[in-house]
Design a protein that fits this description.
The complex is a heterodimer. By secondary structure, chain A is mostly beta strands. In chain A, about 0% of the residues lie in helices and about 60% in strands. Chain A has no helices and 11 strands. In chain A, strand 4 and strand 5 form a beta hairpin. Chain B is an all-beta fold. Chain B is built from no helices and 11 strands. Classes of the chains: A mainly beta, B mainly beta. The interface between A and B is medium-sized, with 30 and 26 residues.
Chain lengths: ~120, ~110
């Protein structure tokens, strides 16, 4: 079963506005990652936040992590039409005694930024 | 350019045919993964290999086999393709506690 669940499933905003996407997960994690996927293309890693971190910034991206609530949020500030894509959260968790790691994805949020 | 290379990019198979999807990475990563992505879904893990010589099942392994040929290469084989295996397949690799690097995908259609 999929670990992460993004909310909302779809988001439409105007250029220049901020976009916030949320993610909830179920089990303990090593880290949580956000990826972007343009239509018909591969996944691009955006940002990683470790389980002992609460907030991280990268350019126009801000990620928060609340391990007590098992949730994360991705904020994209001053959005651009080029930000139109699907955004996925993914949790990296250890298995098999802690030596093997697997990345488990949510179903994604489709972000549309209108010019 | 360093990264994950998948071949082929597109493939059409008839039901019952077999094929192997190839994946290679040149970043000296230990762990490699195969995912499938269906419309409206996130990626689901098929198989993974934590290191050369080891492979483990993921969430949806039925109908697939894998081979970790060496540290660089991790192949995915469909022995008898079924329409339910129509999907986009992504290979990825991982280095320690960093983000995963994904290939550009193989779009497979089984008719």
């Amino acid at each position: 079963s999929q670990q992460g669940e993004e909310d909302p499933q779809a988001l439409s905003i105007q250029e220049g506005e901020n976009a916030t996407m949320n993610c909830s997960y179920k089990t303990s994690i090593n880290n949580l990652q956000w990826y972007r996927q343009n239509s018909g293309r591969g996944l691009v890693h955006l940002i990683l936040i470790r389980s002992n971190e609460r907030e991280k910034h990268s350019g126009r991206l801000r990620v928060t992590l609340d391990t007590s609530k098992k949730s994360s949020s991705l904020l994209i500030t001053a959005s651009r039409a080029a930000d139109t894509a699907s955004y996925f959260c993914a949790t990296d968790s250890a298995h098999s005694g802690g030596s093997n790691y697997k990345l488990t994805f949510g179903k994604g949020t489709l972000l549309t930024v209108n010019p | 350019n360093a990264g994950v290379t998948q071949t082929p990019k597109f493939q059409v198979l008839k039901t019952g045919q077999s094929m192997t999807l190839q994946c290679a990475q040149d970043m000296n990563h230990n762990s490699m993964y195969w995912y499938r992505q269906d419309p409206g879904m996130g990626l689901r893990l098929i198989y993974y290999s934590a290191s050369e010589g080891t492979t483990d099942k993921g969430e949806v392994p039925n109908g697939y086999n894998v081979s970790r040929l060496n540290k660089r290469e991790f192949s995915l084989r469909l022995e008898s393709a079924a329409p339910s295996q129509t999907s986009v397949y992504f290979c990825a690799s991982r280095y320690r506690d960093h983000g995963y690097t994904f290939g550009s995908g193989t779009r497979l259609t089984v008719v």
